[in-house]
Specification:
The protein is mainly alpha-helical and 285 residues long. The chain contains eleven helices and no strands. Helix 8 runs antiparallel to helix 9. The N and C termini lie far apart (49 Å).
């Protein structure tokens, strides 16, 4: 439960960081604005021509009598639009990060420099970073979409579908949002997608505390555009925590204890260099 508050704290710290660095915030808005315009155009097109598309896809219902044909196709049209809205929430971050990769890389590096005086670099050319980011984003979008379809289907379950299932849906969306956002900083540190997911699974509360409020906020039109720069900044701070680089909040000892107790990847990543250095200092006999 404590990690839920810590994750939300990183989200707030990220928003404060960009508020104090106006230039970085301004540049960070551009990718979100472009993505928002593209998504709105797609949703408007779906609202205008969605019913025609449903009619074309269901020719078997042409001979149905009223009101069944209208009810059936109306239901499918609403379902199609609802799925499109869900997928837009799930994919907005991935598409924005892909479009704004150079902007968000720069923002994440600035946060690292402000925290420790230097920023880790992947050492890869820009095209290679873009390829890896696009490939990993596609994998995450597919996973998120599968979960989204499952959650949407469970929404038709009486009682639970209107109470428990929406909460689960926001938690799932929040987890994948967190993965996408922390990937900006973790990819520069050479952490592969599988290892990033393992890190977040070992601190699910942290991921949910950061991503779930963000997923809820992203449902409000245009809010995502203004929150994205701060979300990237906060995710960079959280990535430093996951990698054992943060000394914030006076929790160094607690963080080291959690890494040791879980036996997870945090200790492997954070202590690998120290172990290698110690091994070199041991005299050979």
């Amino acid at each position: 439960m404590r990690d839920l508050g810590v994750g939300f704290g990183y989200l707030m710290k990220g928003q404060r960081w960009v508020a104090q660095h106006g230039k970085q915030y301004g540049w960070g808005l551009l990718p979100g604005l472009l993505t928002f315009v593209l998504y709105v155009a797609a949703l408007v097109a779906l609202a205008v021509w969605g019913q025609d598309a449903v009619g074309w896809a269901t020719p078997f219902a042409d001979d149905w009598s009223a009101p069944w044909q209208g009810l059936f196709r109306g239901f499918l049209t609403v379902l199609l639009f609802a799925l499109a809205l869900l997928l837009s929430v799930l994919t907005f971050t991935a598409v924005t990060l892909l479009i704004g990769q150079p902007f968000y890389e720069s923002l994440s590096e600035k946060v690292d420099i402000a925290e420790s005086g230097h920023a880790p670099e992947s050492g890869l050319p820009l095209w290679r970073d873009l390829w890896i980011s696009g490939r990993d984003s596609l994998r995450i979008v597919v996973r998120a979409a599968l979960w989204g379809v499952l959650v949407f289907a469970l929404g038709f379950v009486p009682v639970a579908g209107q109470t428990v299932v929406p909460v689960i849906g926001f938690c799932v969306t929040g987890f994948f949002l967190t993965e996408e956002l922390t990937a900006v900083a973790l990819q520069r540190r050479g952490v592969e997608l599988r290892d990033r997911l393992a890190l977040l699974r070992s601190r699910k509360g942290l991921a949910w505390g950061f991503g779930t409020p963000l997923a809820v906020a992203f449902l409000v039109p245009f809010v995502a555009v203004f929150l994205m720069p701060g979300a990237v900044a906060g995710a960079t701070l959280m990535a430093r925590d996951l990698m054992g680089e943060n000394g914030a909040d006076g929790d160094d000892g607690d963080s080291r204890g959690r890494r040791g107790d879980s036996g997870g990847l945090q200790g492997d990543f954070g202590g690998r260099q120290e172990d290698e250095a110690a091994a070199r200092r041991i005299p050979r006999t």
